[in-house]
Design goal:
This protein is an alpha/beta fold. The chain has ten helices and eleven strands.
Length: 303
């Protein structure tokens, strides 16, 4: 078999033998791979030890690395199609309609081509580790603000942006804030932003709640419509947001709620129910469009 030939070749060359990862065929296997991948990459992000980094790299290789993680993510998204929800909401808003030009959509962290394959949309899909020729391999945070650059040299803000199961993969709270600000910076006024998170990021977080995260979105100019139709899911949290000006009052409410929640734990943090316990956003500084508030530790100082 091909596996036996690979083993013989490795032995002849004196290479270490790492079993090929099993193909993802079940939700249980997919959840195990994604959980392990996040656990290992979180350790990798925080360690400064070369030995620990080597250990993490070996563990990532053993589970199949980023390719196995993306295969697991593709398996999960096949069960919860964000693209169908996005297309349905764009139709409800009249953005996607017969006789109208195709809306320009930016997809961050595209692990499949479902949105690219949706009729009537003009989609630019990005991912750090593209698995398809139509998905651009690029770090979203390196995009210039203002939308797509047209042939004339002018920028064209996007009509919609999709960020599904990506914020939770960003390794630290400050970069999540940077990402939210950049997301708003890519959209036209009134453009739609679709955010999907694991529900545990809000129900298990030691610092955020569903309500405070909604204020976080308002703070950067992505006002969520909490009455909008979303897929029924016990596992995922969906937000449909309209792009407008940042709301400093909402940002301050978020900072205050985050501060109170963190302070309420005292010296003993609560039991960690899942990886969602670590989900946080360090909002503060430039919110975009000339709006600014202090960093959370500055804004809450008594005057």
């Amino acid at each position: 078999s091909s596996e036996e030939r690979r083993l013989r070749l490795c032995l002849r060359m004196g290479l270490s033998i790492v079993p090929l990862p099993k193909r993802i065929k079940s939700r249980k296997h997919a959840r195990k791979v994604t959980s392990e991948y996040h656990r290992i990459t979180e350790r990798l992000h925080h360690t400064t030890s070369s030995d620990e980094r080597a250990k993490c790299a070996a563990e990532l290789q053993a589970i199949g690395g980023v390719d196995a993680y993306q295969q697991a993510s593709q398996f999960n998204t096949a069960l919860h199609s964000t693209s169908r929800w996005v297309a349905r909401r764009l139709r409800a808003h009249g953005v996607l309609a017969a006789g109208k030009p195709p809306p320009h959509v930016l997809e961050i962290g595209a692990i499949n081509t479902q949105l690219l394959d949706t009729p009537g949309l003009h989609v630019r899909a990005l991912d750090l580790n593209s698995q398809d020729a139509r998905i651009e391999q690029r770090d979203f945070l390196t995009l210039p603000l203002g939308g797509a650059l047209e042939a004339s040299g002018a920028s064209r803000p996007y009509d919609a942006l999709v960020c599904s199961m990506v914020l939770n993969c960003v390794p630290d709270a400050r970069r999540r804030f940077d990402m939210l600000v950049c997301m708003r910076g890519q959209l036209r006024v009134g453009g739609l932003c679709f955010v999907v998170l694991p529900g545990s990021c809000l129900s298990h977080s030691h610092t955020l709640t569903h309500d405070s995260f909604a204020d976080c979105l308002r703070g950067v100019g992505l006002a969520p419509d909490l009455a909008a139709e979303t897929p029924a899911s016990a596992k995922l949290a969906y937000f449909e947001c309209a792009a407008g000006l940042p709301d400093p009052a909402a940002a301050l409410r978020f900072q205050r709620a985050r501060h109170e929640r963190r302070s309420g734990h005292g010296s003993q943090p609560p039991r960690r129910k899942s990886r969602g316990a670590d989900f946080d956003v360090d909002l503060g500084g430039a919110l975009g469009f000339g709006e600014r508030i202090g960093r959370s530790f500055e804004a809450l100082q008594p005057s």
